[in-house]
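Batch job 17 of 40 flagged for manual review because the log was empty.
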Amino acid sequence: MAQGPAEVQVRAGTEADLDALTDLYNHYVRETAITFDTAVFTPEQRRPWLLSHPEDGPHRLLVARDVRSGRLLGYATSSPFRPKAAYATSVEVSVYCAPDAGGLGIGTLLYEALFAALEGEDVHRAYAGIAQPNEPSARLHARFGFRHVGTYREVGRKFGRYWDVAWYERGLGTPPGPATPA
Protein backbone atom coordinates (compact mmCIF):
# COMPACT_ATOMS: atom_id res chain seq x y z
CA MET A 1 0.00 0.00 0.00
CA ALA A 2 1.35 3.43 -0.95
CA GLN A 3 2.10 5.76 1.88
CA GLY A 4 1.47 9.49 1.72
CA PRO A 5 4.13 12.13 2.11
CA ALA A 6 5.35 12.67 5.67
CA GLU A 7 4.45 16.35 5.60
CA VAL A 8 2.48 18.41 3.10
CA GLN A 9 2.47 22.19 2.97
CA VAL A 10 -0.57 23.93 1.48
CA ARG A 11 -0.03 27.57 0.59
CA ALA A 12 -0.87 30.19 -2.01
CA GLY A 13 0.64 29.51 -5.41
CA THR A 14 3.42 31.85 -6.56
CA GLU A 15 5.56 32.53 -9.63
CA ALA A 16 8.07 30.02 -8.25
CA ASP A 17 5.44 27.29 -8.76
CA LEU A 18 4.72 28.16 -12.39
CA ASP A 19 6.89 25.49 -14.06
CA ALA A 20 5.63 22.69 -11.82
CA LEU A 21 2.00 23.84 -12.15
CA THR A 22 2.35 23.90 -15.94
CA ASP A 23 3.91 20.44 -16.02
CA LEU A 24 1.16 18.99 -13.83
CA TYR A 25 -1.63 20.55 -15.88
CA ASN A 26 -0.02 19.48 -19.15
CA HIS A 27 -0.16 15.86 -17.99
CA TYR A 28 -3.95 16.16 -17.85
CA VAL A 29 -4.05 17.96 -21.22
CA ARG A 30 -2.02 15.21 -22.93
CA GLU A 31 -3.31 12.11 -21.15
CA THR A 32 -6.91 12.67 -20.05
CA ALA A 33 -10.26 14.21 -20.82
CA ILE A 34 -10.37 15.75 -17.34
CA THR A 35 -9.59 19.09 -18.97
CA PHE A 36 -10.89 20.02 -22.38
CA ASP A 37 -7.72 21.89 -23.30
CA THR A 38 -6.19 20.00 -26.21
CA ALA A 39 -2.78 21.70 -26.61
CA VAL A 40 -0.10 21.81 -23.93
CA PHE A 41 1.03 25.13 -22.45
CA THR A 42 4.39 26.73 -21.88
CA PRO A 43 4.93 28.35 -18.49
CA GLU A 44 4.78 31.77 -20.19
CA GLN A 45 1.36 30.92 -21.67
CA ARG A 46 0.17 29.80 -18.20
CA ARG A 47 1.42 32.95 -16.41
CA PRO A 48 -1.79 35.02 -16.96
CA TRP A 49 -3.79 32.18 -15.39
CA LEU A 50 -1.46 32.14 -12.37
CA LEU A 51 -1.63 35.93 -12.00
CA SER A 52 -5.44 35.86 -12.14
CA HIS A 53 -5.37 34.09 -8.75
CA PRO A 54 -4.01 36.55 -6.14
CA GLU A 55 -3.21 35.52 -2.56
CA ASP A 56 -6.48 37.01 -1.30
CA GLY A 57 -9.98 37.56 -2.61
CA PRO A 58 -12.43 35.07 -4.07
CA HIS A 59 -10.13 33.78 -6.83
CA ARG A 60 -7.42 31.69 -5.22
CA LEU A 61 -4.72 29.26 -6.24
CA LEU A 62 -3.44 26.94 -3.54
CA VAL A 63 -0.64 24.44 -4.00
CA ALA A 64 0.30 21.34 -2.02
CA ARG A 65 4.00 20.51 -1.83
CA ASP A 66 5.87 17.69 -0.17
CA VAL A 67 7.94 19.51 2.48
CA ARG A 68 10.93 17.13 2.21
CA SER A 69 11.28 17.01 -1.57
CA GLY A 70 9.56 20.27 -2.52
CA ARG A 71 7.64 18.34 -5.19
CA LEU A 72 4.26 19.70 -6.27
CA LEU A 73 1.57 17.22 -5.26
CA GLY A 74 -1.43 19.16 -6.50
CA TYR A 75 -3.30 22.43 -6.64
CA ALA A 76 -6.80 23.82 -6.22
CA THR A 77 -8.36 26.97 -7.62
CA SER A 78 -11.44 29.11 -7.28
CA SER A 79 -11.98 31.09 -10.46
CA PRO A 80 -14.69 33.37 -11.86
CA PHE A 81 -17.75 31.32 -12.78
CA ARG A 82 -18.82 33.62 -15.62
CA PRO A 83 -17.61 37.08 -16.71
CA LYS A 84 -20.86 39.05 -16.15
CA ALA A 85 -21.10 41.15 -12.97
CA ALA A 86 -24.11 39.37 -11.46
CA TYR A 87 -22.03 36.16 -11.29
CA ALA A 88 -19.36 37.81 -9.09
CA THR A 89 -20.42 35.90 -5.95
CA SER A 90 -20.12 32.52 -7.71
CA VAL A 91 -16.85 30.68 -8.31
CA GLU A 92 -15.84 27.60 -10.24
CA VAL A 93 -13.51 25.36 -8.26
CA SER A 94 -11.15 22.64 -9.39
CA VAL A 95 -8.46 20.44 -7.97
CA TYR A 96 -5.64 18.63 -9.78
CA CYS A 97 -3.34 16.11 -8.11
CA ALA A 98 -0.07 14.71 -9.38
CA PRO A 99 -0.82 11.41 -11.13
CA ASP A 100 0.95 9.40 -8.41
CA ALA A 101 -0.65 11.40 -5.57
CA GLY A 102 -4.24 10.28 -6.14
CA GLY A 103 -5.86 8.64 -3.14
CA LEU A 104 -3.40 10.16 -0.65
CA GLY A 105 -5.75 12.86 0.63
CA ILE A 106 -4.06 15.71 -1.26
CA GLY A 107 -7.33 16.83 -2.89
CA THR A 108 -8.99 16.84 0.52
CA LEU A 109 -6.19 18.95 2.06
CA LEU A 110 -6.39 21.42 -0.82
CA TYR A 111 -10.18 21.77 -0.70
CA GLU A 112 -10.16 22.14 3.11
CA ALA A 113 -7.70 25.02 2.77
CA LEU A 114 -9.50 26.55 -0.21
CA PHE A 115 -12.93 26.57 1.41
CA ALA A 116 -11.46 27.90 4.67
CA ALA A 117 -9.84 30.73 2.70
CA LEU A 118 -13.13 31.53 0.96
CA GLU A 119 -15.10 31.76 4.25
CA GLY A 120 -14.35 35.46 4.67
CA GLU A 121 -15.01 36.36 1.04
CA ASP A 122 -18.20 37.59 -0.60
CA VAL A 123 -18.84 34.24 -2.31
CA HIS A 124 -22.27 32.62 -2.28
CA ARG A 125 -21.90 29.49 -4.45
CA ALA A 126 -19.15 27.21 -5.72
CA TYR A 127 -19.56 25.16 -8.89
CA ALA A 128 -17.51 22.27 -10.22
CA GLY A 129 -17.68 20.72 -13.68
CA ILE A 130 -16.47 17.12 -13.79
CA ALA A 131 -15.81 15.42 -17.13
CA GLN A 132 -17.37 11.97 -17.06
CA PRO A 133 -16.52 9.41 -15.97
CA ASN A 134 -14.51 10.53 -12.94
CA GLU A 135 -15.78 8.78 -9.81
CA PRO A 136 -12.86 9.88 -7.57
CA SER A 137 -13.65 13.55 -8.29
CA ALA A 138 -17.39 13.00 -7.75
CA ARG A 139 -16.63 11.40 -4.35
CA LEU A 140 -14.30 14.26 -3.36
CA HIS A 141 -16.92 16.87 -4.21
CA ALA A 142 -19.66 14.93 -2.38
CA ARG A 143 -17.45 14.87 0.76
CA PHE A 144 -17.37 18.66 0.59
CA GLY A 145 -21.13 19.02 0.33
CA PHE A 146 -21.48 19.47 -3.42
CA ARG A 147 -24.64 18.13 -5.01
CA HIS A 148 -25.18 17.16 -8.62
CA VAL A 149 -27.34 19.74 -10.42
CA GLY A 150 -27.16 18.55 -14.02
CA THR A 151 -25.12 17.05 -16.80
CA TYR A 152 -24.21 18.55 -20.15
CA ARG A 153 -24.24 15.64 -22.60
CA GLU A 154 -21.46 15.29 -25.17
CA VAL A 155 -20.39 18.89 -24.58
CA GLY A 156 -16.69 18.44 -25.34
CA ARG A 157 -14.78 16.52 -28.00
CA LYS A 158 -11.31 15.23 -27.23
CA PHE A 159 -9.37 12.14 -28.32
CA GLY A 160 -11.89 11.53 -31.10
CA ARG A 161 -14.95 11.19 -28.90
CA TYR A 162 -17.52 13.28 -27.06
CA TRP A 163 -17.52 13.67 -23.27
CA ASP A 164 -20.25 14.59 -20.80
CA VAL A 165 -19.67 17.09 -17.97
CA ALA A 166 -21.58 16.71 -14.70
CA TRP A 167 -22.10 19.97 -12.78
CA TYR A 168 -22.07 20.19 -9.00
CA GLU A 169 -22.80 23.09 -6.65
CA ARG A 170 -22.27 23.96 -3.03
CA GLY A 171 -23.38 26.94 -0.95
CA LEU A 172 -20.69 29.10 0.65
CA GLY A 173 -20.70 31.73 3.36
CA THR A 174 -23.77 33.33 4.78
CA PRO A 175 -26.34 35.48 3.02
CA PRO A 176 -25.59 39.23 3.17
CA GLY A 177 -29.04 40.15 4.52
CA PRO A 178 -31.87 38.67 6.56
CA ALA A 179 -32.98 35.20 5.56
CA THR A 180 -35.99 35.05 3.28
CA PRO A 181 -38.87 32.99 4.73
CA ALA A 182 -39.47 29.74 2.87
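Reviewer: the log was empty due to a logging misconfiguration, but the result itself is present. Confidence is low (pLDDT under 50) at residues 1-5, 175-182. Unflagging and moving on to job 18.
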